[in-house]
Amino acid sequence: MTHTYLRRLGGVAAAAVAAGLLAVPTAAVADDTAPEVLGTEQGGEYRTNACDATTAPLRSGRTAAGPTLKAKVTGAGARFGVWDETTGAQAPVYTGEAQAYAQQASVKVPGLLDGHSYAWHAWALQGTQASAPSADCHFSVDTTSPTATVSSTDFPASGKATKYAGQKGTFVIRTADPAPAGGTASGVACVRYGFDYLGVGGCDSPNAVKPGADGTVTLDLKVLNWGSNDLKVQVLDDAGNLGQASYSFYAPSNPNPPSTLGDVDGDGTADILLPDAQGNLQYIGVNSADTTPGSTVRAVAAPDRTSWASYQVAHRGWSNDHAPSADDLFIHKPGQGYLYLHRNVDYGSIGQALTGAVRSTECVDDTGADAACPADFAKDWSKADQLVAFGPVDGGTEPSLVTLEGGNLWLHAGGDFAYGWQKARKLTTSGAWGGYDLIAPGPDAAGNLALWARDRATGELHAHPVPKRADGTLDFSALADPAANVVATGFTTDAYPTLGSSGDGDGKPDLWAVTADRHLVTFGGWSAPKDLGALR
Questions:
Q1: Would the pLDDT of 33 be above 60?
Q2: Phi then psi for 88, rounded to 5 degrees?
Q3: Whole-angstrom Cα distance, residue 383 to residue 376?
Q4: What is d(CA 268, CA 518) in angstroms, rounded to the nearest whole number?
Q5: Most confident listed range (69-78, 450-459, 497-506)
Q6: Cis peptide before 324 (omega within 30 of 0)
Q7: Nearest to residue 500, comparing CAs of 513, 490, 483, 489?
Q8: How many other CB atoms are found less than 10 A from the CB of residue 15?
Q9: What are the two backbone dihedrals, phi and then psi, of residue 301, each rounded to the nearest 5 degrees?
Q10: Rounded to whole angstroms, how far apart are CA atoms 111 and 120?
Q11: Residue 533 contacts by C-beta under 8 Å, 6 or more apart in sequence?
């Protein structure tokens, strides 16, 4: 059956008219443009005109309502007719009319056969009058789902893994797209993958990749959870059909895990934590050559289940009573009463629920003795405009937090963050810290700490020492004047809206910054800038 028989109302179309199945247009109305075939499948939206002899027809996949046919018309509605090109039957397999909205009319065509090819055209309607028919258009139906299998020699399904959790393993995904009976296969469009969770999306998703010519995808993935894991796989074909596979394996815990201050994902390198444009949280190693993240936490894992962009995320090592030996995360949205804690037992994947606690706090004085909290001191975290993870203080093993509240600095240490309980100590009383961005660069080789601060009005960078005394306690006296100890200039908010430090404790505290055009820049100390390129 040729492409011209419908245009000329010859062959099957002429027979259909003669049989009274389709009304002969009695008068032409305003011209209609070539219709579109619109198929909305799970894999996304597929459009084509395919109304000539050269355009490849749309492949319509599995959908309960059938593909959608759309015509752009200037009349009040449109009439549609569909013929089965595979059988060559003269009678249409579908006829229907639809009102036009915004010059578009559409119908869904149910009951079509897998593997068959179809032709259709449309008329514009104005009352009982119809236009000349549009060009005939074509599509085929493929409702046969593609398949996928997964294997790995690093983390075999048998359980005899040759690598540990926290390390990368190679996973091979082999795909196939069986042809429907009597038709041809649509071809695999992409594979989507993820550990334990995939979410919704199509081939434009960040976790989607197109197979090679042999249908194979090879992935080098870091396994973040020790114990049982599931690699979820979805394979989509060009018709929008979806196939699924799940690969279960066991990842043993590393008996000698790397341990580096500032490391969140357990690879032994300190990390910079920044959201990407989609609200996912990226872990970018401080020694990276570019902005490719070593790991990414999906946006849905944020406390509000939508995005990490509005949260401050501070990280610092805990006492070594849990594995892996990587930084725990403190997460807070300014103005919110909850501080969220992630005890990092899964290499930063945040696969487990965050602990959120209203602050239950005791106040202490400079000597550590109990003291009455000020009348304006909030019993939750709602007044904490900024927070940085400061590391263990005064001989403790748990990290402390320094917060900026009401223009003053507060130290939170000596309690238990896991239960939302801490001892709060007011470090300053001048109220002059409100115009500064806080940065915690980590300890030096002798265990002395420091607090850096960027003056947002001038772009000056201040480095305030917090040295360790002979008795092991820390001296915070240098924090009295935020304007003291200028070490660098030029760090304006226009040039660098965001500043931070990995706090890796290598004795060479390093600054990093995000530029106004979202480039990530790292520094040796606060000099020697290195542009790693644009963030995702």
A1: no
A2: 75, 15
A3: 10
A4: 26
A5: 450-459
A6: yes
A7: 513
A8: 16
A9: -85, -5
A10: 15
A11: 290, 291, 519, 520
For residues 150 and 172, what is the distance between their CA atoms, to the nearest angstrom? 6
- CA separation for the pair 391, 474 (Å, rounded): 12
- For 8: left if phi > 0, alpha if psi spans -120 to 50, otherwise beta; the answer is alpha
Report d(CA 50, CA 62) in Å as an integer.
Answer: 20
Mean pLDDT of 312-331: 75
Asked if residue 90 has pLDDT above 80, the reply is yes
Q: How many residues does the chain have?
A: 536
Using alpha carbons, list the distances in angstroms from residue 113 to 57, 68, 93.
16, 15, 11
Interior angle at CA 12, CA 8 and CA 13, nearest 5: 50
What number of CA atoms fall less than 13 Å from residue 143's CA on the CB side? 14
Residue 138 has pLDDT above 90, yes or no: no
Look at the pTM and tell me if it is higher than 0.90. no
**Cβ neighbours of residue 263 closer than 8 Å, sequence gap 6 or more:** 269, 270, 271, 326, 327, 504
Q: Concatenate the DSSP letters of all residues of 114-173 into one string.
A: TT-EEEEEEEEEETTEE------EEEEE--PPPEEEEE-SSS-TTS--SS-TTSEEEEEE
How far apart are the C-alpha atoms of 92 and 338, rounded to whole Å?
64
Here the tokens at position 81 are 């007719």
**Which residue is listed with tokens 């296969």?**
185
Helix (H, G, I), strand (E, B) or coil at 489: coil
